[in-house]
């Protein structure tokens, strides 16, 4: 049995973003207009909303993502964001037992980066490795970095000798919402499943 694709579900309040450069600007424009009709109080954030979605789509596409879902919501005068992407990557050294390559980073202070290595049970995939923590996410085009919450879950493709991994990454610069956002990332990741050749 081999995988022909995958599915993942995001909350209704999130956007699924078109990633391809030829289609994303028009798709994001339509997406924003649709969301403003549903949630008129976001209208004051219209320009920021479109800008964040375009930038998120560009970063996701440049990193090789196949799926990108994002939360963009007004919070007072600011815009809060969170993103979940799915990227298909080669397993390190063609070894899908990724856990042996993951390293923890101890927390050295209240504002430091840190990473813990753990595992989680996914329906249809079994127990898979995961990291969660705070890291500096590099911005495109040398624009710097932003300290962010990051959760990454590594799901080997089905088959006897998997050499590819679905990397599901949840990230957000909203460090103060660590517990809440990690719970959301965990819930979204829990909906991930491969679609087999027979189901496609």
Describe this structure in words.
The protein has one domain (about 5-195). The chain is built from three helices and nine strands; from the N terminus they run E-E-H-H-E-E-E-E-E-E-H-E. The protein has helices at about 20-40, 45-60, 180-190; strands at about 5, 15, 65-75, 80-90, 115-120, 125-140, 145-155, 165-170, 195. The strands form two sheets. It has a seven-stranded antiparallel β-sheet, with helices on both faces. A two-stranded antiparallel sheet has the order 1-9. Strand 3 (about 65-75) and strand 4 (about 80-90) form a beta hairpin. The two termini are about 10 Å apart. The model has no long low-confidence stretch (mean pLDDT about 85).
Task: Write a compact overview of the structure shown.
It is built from three helices and nine strands.
């Amino acid at each position: 049995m081999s995988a022909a694709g995958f599915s993942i579900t995001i909350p209704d309040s999130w956007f699924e973003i078109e990633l391809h450069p030829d289609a994303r600007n028009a798709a994001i424009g339509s997406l924003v207009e649709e969301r403003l009709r549903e949630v008129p109080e976001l209208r004051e954030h219209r320009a920021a909303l479109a800008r964040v979605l375009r930038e998120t789509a560009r970063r996701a596409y440049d990193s090789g993502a196949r799926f990108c879902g994002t939360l963009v919501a007004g919070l007072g005068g600011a815009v809060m964001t969170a993103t979940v992407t799915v990227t298909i990557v080669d397993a390190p050294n063609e070894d899908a037992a990724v856990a042996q390559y993951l390293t923890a980073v101890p927390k050295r202070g209240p504002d430091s980066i840190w990473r813990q290595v753990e595992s989680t049970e996914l329906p249809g995939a079994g127990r898979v490795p995961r990291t969660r923590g705070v890291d500096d996410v590099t911005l495109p085009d040398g624009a710097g970095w932003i300290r962010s919450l990051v959760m990454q879950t590594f799901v080997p493709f089905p088959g006897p000798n998997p050499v590819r991994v679905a990397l599901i990454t949840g990230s957000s610069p909203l460090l103060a919402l660590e517990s809440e956002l990690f719970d959301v990332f965990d819930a979204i990741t829990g909906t991930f499943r491969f679609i087999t050749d027979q189901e496609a």
